[in-house]
Every structure is written in C-alpha cells, then in structure tokens.
Amino acid sequence: MSVKKSVVVLDYGFGNVRSAVRALEHIGLEVKLTSDFETAMAADGLVIPGVGAFAACMAGIEAVNGPALVDARLIAGAPILGICVGMQIMFDRGIEHDQECNGLGQWPGTVTKLPASITPHMGWNTVQAPEDSLIFAGLAHESFYFVHSYAAQEWAMTDTDKYQKPPLVTWCNYESPFVAAVENGPLTAVQFHPEKSGEAGLGLLRNWALTLT
Amino acid sequence: MTLGIRVIACLDVDQGRVVKGVNFEGLRDAGDPCELALKYSNEGVDELVFLDISASHSDRSTTLDVVRRTADTVFIPLTVGGGVRSVDDIDALLRAGADKVSINTAAIARPDLLREAAERFGSQCIVLSIDARREPEMPSGFGVTTHGGRRSAGLDALEWAQTGAALGVGEILLNSMDADGMQTGFDLEMIGAVRTIVNIPVIASGGAGRLEDFAPAVQAGANAVLAASVFHFGQLTFESIKNDLAGRGIPVRAVQVAGMDGP
Question: How far is CA A6 from CA A37, A79, A208, B107, in A?
C-alpha cells in the first residue's frame, strides 16, 4: 500500500497559487496551502511560488517566517521547489527599478532585468538541461511557459566542496542566456511555470515528486 | 532555445456558456468553456482567453466558477477579460485561477486603473485590450473604439498603446475591429505600427480566416496570434497553423501528444 507524498505550497499572500496546488494534486500528491511552520517542516516537499515583484515577494516570505523555514528544511535535507520569483529569491539579491533587495542568499548572484528588446519574456521556450538532470528527465525537447522580466543571468557558485554533488544548472535563452532551473541537493528551482506548462510541466513536477522521500 | 510565437484561442462566454455556435462531436457539453478549454489544450493551443460578454454582474459570478473549474483541470495560461472594472474584479479573477486579466473599456474611462493593477498584481498579469479601427482623423490613422467597435473613444490607438505600456501593463491584445469577423487576414499595418512603439508583447487579433493569414501577422511584429471562430468551427487546427508557421521559419511550441497524463 502506497501512501501519498505530502507537499505544502507556501501561502504568503502572493501569486496565483490555485494552479500550483491543482497541478500538484493532479499528479497525485497530497497538497496543503499554508504558511504554518510545523506543517511546512513535516511535509515531504515544500513549494514556494511567486509572481510579481522581487521585493514584494521577499516581504511576504519574511512575514510568514519563510527564511527560517527554508534554512531549516535545507539543513534537514528536505526538498524545496521554488517557482518563478520563488526561484529568484533564492539568490543573494534582486535589482528591480534600480531598487536593490536582499534575497535568501542560498545561491550567490543577483537577479537583474533581462536585456531583451521585448519584455516580459512571455511564452513557451525550450531549455538546455544537463544530461543528468532529474527534473528534466524525459523532457529534453519540451517547451515550458515563462513569464518574467528579471532573471539570474550568471551562475556564480564555485564548486568547492568535494563531498557535495555540484549543482545542475539549466539554461534558457531569450536574446541572451539566463538560468532557467537549478538542482542543488534538496533545493530545486525553476524560472518558468511548470503548473502552466501543460503535459511537459506536469512531467517535470512528477520528476520532482519522485525525489521526495 | 527560441521563444515560440503563441497561438491563442479566444472563447466568448455568456452566463457561463460558450457562445458563437460552437459545434463539436465528442464533447459531452460543447457549450462548457471548461471542456472546450481542455480539448484545445490537448490539441496544442498555447494559451486561452475567456472573454466574458455577460450583461449583468450576477452572470459574471458564473464566470468566476467557470474560471475556477478551468484552472483546476487545464494547465496552460488563461487570460480572462470582459467587464473588468476595478482592482477588486481583477483580484477575484486571479484568485479564481486566471493567470492574466485583460482590461478594456474601464481603462479608457480611468487609465490609472492600469497602473494600480500592475503595481498590485504585477505587470505580467495585466493585459491591455484595445479594440481599434482605422480612423483617418486620428494622428496615426488608428483610433480606439468602445461598444464592440460601434463607438469611437476619441483616442489615438498608438498613443493609447504607448500609455498602457507606460502605466505598466505586461502585454497588449490588439483587436482590429475592421478585420474582426471578416476572415480576410489580420490588419498588418496596425500590428506593425503598434509593434514599433511599445516594447511589450503584442497579441494580434481579428481577421484570421485562412492558414496563410497567421505568418504575415507574426512578420508584421505580433508575438502571439489569436483567433476564435476558425477554431470553434473546426476550419483550422492549432497543429496546422503551427506547422505552417514552422515551415516559414517562425519558432513555435511543438504540439504535444495529449492524454498521456494520469490519474
């Protein structure tokens, strides 16, 4: 008899979280939308959604004790999936409209405006995933739905810890390259919206769900 | 890695039902926007637009229910518009599961609604819908209309597009009221004119009739092409349009095989 894996979608008052919740339910997970610390710690997986402005999302996350929650889960090796701005805030900082805002600092680097002729980068794009990526397994040629004007355009982490598997970085290109996804131990994040990327997105969520223990 | 040109289907919804005589075999209820949305998603549409044409406020609450049911089962982007008057209307639609909300007449009456909406919810989910037609007396030759194209709003369409972009909308849905329903092709000149003055995505709408109508709209500068009746009456498939675009060197998302998902 199999027991459904549990996922908490962090509820901090931002974003269209309904789609994320339904997509995760659709692939067979037990989903709770909450910001309760203990519930979020106990879940097999934590999903951090996010749309809109970096600073507003950070303020929302801080208001629900999100930074401590992320730290505590990662120290325990418990999986987290950040989506869109929920990915961007994992970096050191974001700069929007000349305003700098600190992120959660899980990864070095700054989230900046895409230097493209038309923004937002809106629509379906393909990505360049490393061969050993878990979340893109079987999805190498698929397109995913992006809606964003900002992104991490450099990957600055150097692999210094020989005992740790180096992070897997997936790139996308919209006139210039930017980071589309990172798989770094328990911390996974995607710049696009898997919950809005049709079958490919559901496949990616299933792949992530397989990493939950 | 190239961003695909989006092919978008628009469904007119009245009192929770699809209008414009949709007729498909194999659907339990072809008048249910949710079922039609799922069918289109499975057939490879990139994005969906629901245009609520309900006359009364109480009918629009039915639309919220339709949006909820659709967002629960269809996992591609959904824009909802029609009768959106306030930040509260937008909030209700986003909470129901819409990814983007399009604003039209209410913004003409009060442009600041666009700024307030973009600041509160983010530019990425606010679409400015412009019903435009050729009006020789306007500086650009293109004017904004209201009431389904029957009245002039006394606004230059290009200036209005520029104002919307400056107020923070993330995208422009450009409907040609001259071309709408004619099935003789998009208004390429208008698309090109708007493309040159804004740096946000432009969705071309109005006039699609034949397969070969779509590529010129993209070449004129559209980032997405929207149609309604050619899909509803089964004249064209998303796959045929995408194959045609791809054959002309225009990047599109490949149509996925549907029905692979459980449970």
Answer: 15, 11, 13, 43
Which domains does chain B show, CATH number per domain?
Answer: 6-247 (3.20.20.70)
* Contact across the interface for B4 and A123, Cβ inside 8 Å: yes
C-alpha separations of B111 from A47, B88, B119, B150, B258 in Å: 36, 16, 13, 21, 41
Peptide bond into A120 cis (omega under 30): yes
At B258 the three-state DSSP class reads: coil
| Domains present along chain A, CATH in parentheses | 6-210 (3.40.50.880)
Per residue in A128-148, pLDDT (tens digit) is 999 999 999 999 999 999 999
With CB atoms and an 8 Å threshold, state whether A123 touches B96: no
The residue type at A28:
G
* DSSP string over A131-152: TT-STTTT-TT-EEEEEESEEE
Q: Is A195 one of the catalytic residues?
A: yes
Annotated catalytic, A84? yes
Q: What is B63-90 written as a DSSP string?
A: HHHHHHHHHHH--S-EEEESS--SHHHH
Question: What phi and psi values does residue A154 have, to the nearest 5 degrees?
Answer: -140, 150
Axis-axis angle for helices B112-121, B87-96 (nearest 10): 40
Q: Report which residue type is found at A71.
A: D
A193 counts as catalytic = yes
A16 has pLDDT over 80: no
pLDDT at position B23 is 52
Is B258 within 8 Å of chain A by CB? yes
What is the number of residues in chain B? Answer: 263
CA angle A144, A148, A153 (to 5 degrees): 90
Instruction: State the greatest distance between any 2 C-alpha atoms of chain A, in Å, as a whole number.
Output: 54
Interface contact B250, partner A, CB < 8 A: no
Q: Which of these ranges, A103-107, A135-139, B133-137, B259-263, has the smallest mean pLDDT?
A: B259-263
Which pLDDT score, from 0 to 100, does residue B263 have?
36
Buried b or exposed e, range A159-180, using 16+ CB within 10 angstroms: eeeeeeeebbbbbbbbeeebbb
Residue A164: strand, helix, or coil: coil
Q: Is B75 on the interface with A (CB under 8 A)?
A: yes
Cβ–Cβ of B2/A26 closer than 8 Å? no
Q: 3-state SS of B213-253?
A: HHHHHHHCCCCEEEECHHHHCCCCCHHHHHHHHHHCCCCCC
- Distance from the A210 Cα atom to the nearest Cα atom in chain B, whole angstroms: 15
Residues of B in contact with A195 (CB under 8 A): 75
